Here is the input.
Amino acid sequence: MFHLPGNRHSTVAIAALATALASPALAQDASNSADPAEGSIIVTAARTILPPNALPLTIDLIDKQALDQQIAISGSVTDAVSTLTPSFSPTRGKLSGAGETLRGRSPLYAINGVPQSTPLRDGSRDGFTIDGFFIDRVELIYGSNALQGIGGTGGIVNQVAVGAPKEEGISGRVLLQGSASDDFDGDGFGGKAAGLVQYKAGDFDATVGASYEKRGAFYDARNRRIGINLTQGETQASETTDFFARLGYAVGDTGRLDLILNRYELKGDGDYIPLAGSRTAGIPTSAVKGDTPGTPGTNRTESASLSYTDSDLGGGNLVTQIFFNRSRDTFGGEFAAIATFQDPDIAPIGTLFDQSQNRSRKIGGKISYERALPGFEALTTTVGLDILFDKTEQRLIVTGRTWVPPSDFRSIAPFAQANLKIADGLLRLAGGLRWENVQVKIGDYHTLASTTAPNYGGVDVDGGKPKFSDALLNGGVIVEPLQGIRAYASYAEGFTMPDVGRVTRAIGVAGVDLNNYLDISPIVSNNREIGLEVKRGPLDASATYFWSSSDKGQVLIAQGDGIFTVQRQRVEIQGLEVNLGVQMPIKGLKLSTGYAHLKGRYDSDTTNPDGIVDTDLDGTNISPDRLNVAASYSHGPVSLRLQNQFYLSRTFHGKANPDRRNNFGGYSVTDAYVRYDTANLGGIYLSVQNLFDKFYIDYSSDTRLPNDNLAYFAGRGRLFTLGWDYRF
Here is the structure.
């Protein structure tokens, strides 16, 4: 049964919900035209040229203007998506995005369709692989689906890189900005410089660019430094560089060849060490000057993709792509704090220092062909094939040991989709099938001396080549009685691997054969949803109810030493999302609100699972309920935005007796943005994050690790960002 949250914010939430349901409402600025030639937005992540209203999916588009506003306020694409998407978790403010979910499950991050996630060992760094300066828009597809292959159990976050220049000659953009904490502390200053140059000459075009960002220390609303997470890595006190290139060539009237290259690196400065707080006294973790042991947390990603598209090949649309992606996720280290790394054969217990690094390399290809069926133009069909090879390992880089053994992943997945238009679009039927074939290859290995201290010695594990395959179905119906008003219902299956690295490194019993080890079997999630959208006149609205389940889902369980392990249990999640936007009579003024309620439960019986979900998913696995309210104005040279996010309190219940200290008290944050575009000198903007300088403990810290005073982080206090950008 579906329940609204019972907390002190419920009255506000229910009132907003009732208003939204009583009024036709908002979603995104996408045309409802069914003909791509008429200027509708094509959502490339959906693998079709049909417009969004022809698909039984919940889709959001974050355009360049909205994206740049949010990045100016909060600093990253991930923060922008989180702020604008009520059913997305509040970000942790750290380099790691572990526990950040969309509809209670992990989303698949992609750049132009190239997956950024590592399917076998989730380093949770996939939200920091490209600078937002080089992104033109973000496409969000909600809910479990297999449209982009493995990984999209929560949805797809596809970042579409800057497009090719349209005008002959040279053009470009430059950006300069600086940021400062509320008291303008010396080490709290940050700055960014970025630029790109575009050139077009006939059929050839080129775009090259670079960005550099220096982030200072972060301060909370009490003017205390926010704590450093040495192990997971930080965005504060860091340097980021990104080099981007796009080369294109037009082939005939409808063909195009594109090569996209990107190298992104975020490195911690290593200038601070954590200072423990006190949860009982309400004192958050802080940081003091000091040298970080070992190498600070770092994220480096290098990628290349080559695509060929033809919008009129044999009357249809051809899309092909091959890609390469390599990442190095370096995690920080601490003496003795991580018992797992200790080995008495190397050094006395409590004296051994080590740190880990994820190393992943992906090579893959995609091909799809879409066209209306000859003689029956109302039926559009798509066939395609996706191939992915991934090699991942997690090494301890000080002592040279292996924590997660080298693992080879192979996925071969043919698919077919169909979309039938009936009665001139009054009714549409859509559906398809994807056949996912996966193999995981892991050699024999020996676990670390201490996987669960003090049981030293490690165990031998027999490797294997387990294979998995599944037919993933999707289908839906869309009814559009009037242009701009539609209702839909759909069912879709998502497919991903559990965090195999966490599973294999935690094996503590001898004699395990990976060929028959159920804990590494795939996660198949089922997503069902019904939705209503209205986009007519000044109104842009949507209301969606969804529920999803997985028989062998993935639940992260804290072990008390900063390490999380995976439990494979049945998981059920349900939720309601409502968005409402109204263009006001004052030209350029728009008011909007969004609300999301999510409830997730899992089967906590680990020894004899009965398939009955009996315990709430905690803050490590699901986001809080949220209400967003915003007012924006854009007319002439002036752009303004005022926004507030209410994160609603939550109490966790269940048979597993969740720790009451992990209950969430709730908080709200208000941000503001103003921009003025001059006639010849570009635009000047000022943003303020946490406008009222409100003190709060962030959601992730408030809902997990109740005994860890080094992981009790406050949210960021008031932050000013002043910037200038110029297009030529």
